[in-house]
Amino acid sequence: CSRQICSTTLQHSNRQQINEDSKMSPNTTIPSLPPLYFHEKNGYKDTKIENSENMISLESLPAELTRHCISSFCAWGDLAKLATVQKSWANIMKDAAEHGGKKAKWELANALMDGTNGLESNPTLAVEYFSELAGVTINENEESESDEQDEAGDIIVLEPSPCHDEVVESEDVYVPAMRKLATCNLTGHGVPHNNSAGLKWLETAYKIGNDVDAAHELALIYEYAQHGVEIDVVVAAQWFKQAAESGHVEAMAEYAMCCELGCGREQSDEDALEWYIKAAESGHTTSKFSVGEAFEEARGVPQSDEEACLWYYKAAVEGDEDSKRALRRLRDIARIVVPGLANLLNE
């Protein structure tokens, strides 16, 4: 019994030490290798391997490292150390990533990018893994589709080509990797700074991966001149519209504001109200206030303080202070149409 307790304690201690040494997060998956990986790499195949007497057996490894491997497999940092032990293990990290599939490659790429899980930061190698995971390539010399517009001024988003359809059906693409490649190019991390390539990766993530967050990010980049990209409120409004039409709630509110202010497109109170209502009905608190404001000021809709109070109330119960101030201003009407007004306003 005491021997079993000692064994359990030692195993727990070893696992804890591995996690501390490798800086692993609780959700990190420990990489794995095929069951006979070391057996084969050490030359114990049916076929004879030349110079097998120069190979090092697993039993000859340092006791501490062996204990790590046995108690909890190896973290990425441990595999990196094993790769330096003998030539036949030089590709052990790559082999573990291949054996673990897409998830293992993704975790290895992020560990290399951030210098975590016991690995030194190697952004260049990380980008190679992200590129492999993305499953598609981009033509950096091709004109960005953000510059292609139809007669109405909207972005022309091309339908995926037949080859792209094939890629999507075979699940060979990985959108998070596309987003990482966009960030790397926009920030010059792991690759030379290249805004054109970064923007193209975001477009690709939206077109092929249906990533509406990528469309919204494009809009923000053009609106606020992020990463040194020149401000273009017209293109920003177009991408807000693309994201909004694809169901991105924040983009709905942003595009409504573009309509309200005439920023990047023709001013229209009616269009603004339409998009504010869509955002509000999707749970966007500030948009509920904006709908109330539109009714109070008769912008795109007949004036109605009663309707305005109802919308202000919807936002106020979610903590919107502007809506609470509006209800106080319209107190005489609000106390009639809004239930529990005094409690809501702490009066």
Tell me briefly what this model is:
The protein is an all-alpha fold and 347 residues long. Helix content is 60%, strand content 0%. Residues 1-24, 46-50 and 146-170 have low confidence and may be disordered.
Features:
mainly alpha, 347 residues
Show the helix and strand layout.
Blueprint: H1 2-22, H2 37-41, H3 63-72, H4 76-82, H5 92-114, H6 123-134, H7 162-169, H8 175-187, H9 195-207, H10 212-224, H11 233-245, H12 249-261, H13 269-281, H14 285-297, H15 305-316, H16 321-329, H17 331-337, H18 341-344
Helix pairs in contact: 1-3, 4-5, 5-6, 6-8, 8-9, 9-10, 10-11, 11-12, 12-13, 13-14, 14-15, 15-16
- Helix segment tally: 18
Structural class: mainly alpha
Main sheet characteristics = none
Q: Would you report the number of β strands?
A: 0
User: Which bin fits the share of residues in helices?
Assistant: 55-70%
> End-to-end span in angstroms?
67 Å
What do you see in this structure?
- It is a single chain.
- This protein has 347 residues and is mostly helical.
- Helix content is 60%, strand content 0%.
- The chain is built from 18 helices and no strands.
- The chain has helices spanning 2-22, 37-41, 63-72, 76-82, 92-114, 123-134, 162-169, 175-187, 195-207, 212-224, 233-245, 249-261, 269-281, 285-297, 305-316, 321-329, 331-337, 341-344.
- α4 packs across α5 (92-114) and α5 (92-114) packs across α6 (123-134).
- It is elongated, with a radius of gyration of 29 Å.
